[in-house]
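Q: Protein A?
A:
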Amino acid sequence: MAFQGARVPLNWWQRAAVVAGSAVGAALNPARADLVAALGETTGGFAFQRMLERMERSPEGQRILAERPRVTSSAMSRAWDLPPNTFGAAYAQFMGSRNFSPDDRPPVRFLESEQLAYVATRAREVHDFWHVLFSLPTSVMGELALKALEFQQTTMPMCFLSVAGASWRLKPHQRDALFREFIPWAFKAGNSATDLMCVYYEQHLDEDLEDVRSKWGIIPAPALRKK
């Protein structure tokens, strides 16, 4: 599998500079996917290693590592033709209604091991599947709730730092709901779900959305209240 862009080796002080700069930038603007990605790569080495080890122990995870599927617009094109009750159709509606393209994800740059770089790429590319499965919007509140769930599933420091650093952007009542309602939900849902990095999502697109939620132990998020 070919990765876009060149991976960039960093010494300790360069890594520290990237961590500091991306952490501040991502807290100020959580929509900066490149900064969030850089923070994840430079702080998540141990977490990516643990994800890799879990995938190597899982039959479905082993197939993912062997075949290295990519979530790209061409690979996902058939989702737009699936029946409306299916997981794939829900994904297509989610992406299409927001004018998102799976090709817009920034490439992995700061992980030198190709195997870990693929795991990081996979984690990045299945993020939108998780939005669909857990019924979370792409608002700041929705992203932070999903980051809390991702932390429960992956232990990536970036997920914790994103919640801690960007929650200040919420209105007081939203911040209160995040910590009283959505973070407890995230830890319960993350613990209930199967290991989401070991799911070959592309092979389940034509299955009923509620069936895959049940099969994978998915607990959808509480509805976001509009105020």
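Q: Protein B?
A:
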Amino acid sequence: MSPFRHRCGRSEARRYHREVPASAPDYRRHGRGGRGGRFFDTGDLRLVILRLIAERPRHGYEIIKDIEERLAGAYSPSPGVVYPTLTLLEELGQIAVRSTEGGRKLYAVTPEGEAALAGSREEADALFARMDALAGDQPDGSVLQLKRAVHNLRNALRMRLSRGPLTEEQLHGIVAMIDDVAHKVERI
């Protein structure tokens, strides 16, 4: 696939996410359109990261975990997205490394970053409100707890399968456990 065609596909996806009405009850309007989708549109994650660092200096890993916690596990940005974004923000002069301990950089906002954040305050507020709304699907966050649990099961299966093939006995055991849980959920 040519680089041009790849970029066109991305812009078409971005256009789709912008066309979905803000009143849509589904979280896919935020860029997380199923398998392989993104939670944030272009530039949104950069603004979220900048605001988090403006709240207090943070390490990259803390940013990943903070976003994941704010969304109760429904989404977690990958290091392959967060660390290049931190590098970009640093190159733009909006954040700077305050200290380095054990190879981990602690990022702090700069005056340029504060100015950029002030210029995008409404957009940042809307992003955080959207994240809060998603995390608050239910008053107690139960929907997101369920999504997190399903995500954990999927990851556990992937990790086990990555270690090598299953024996027939192991496969039947896993399938039986999952089927048993599904039947129990149906009866609740």
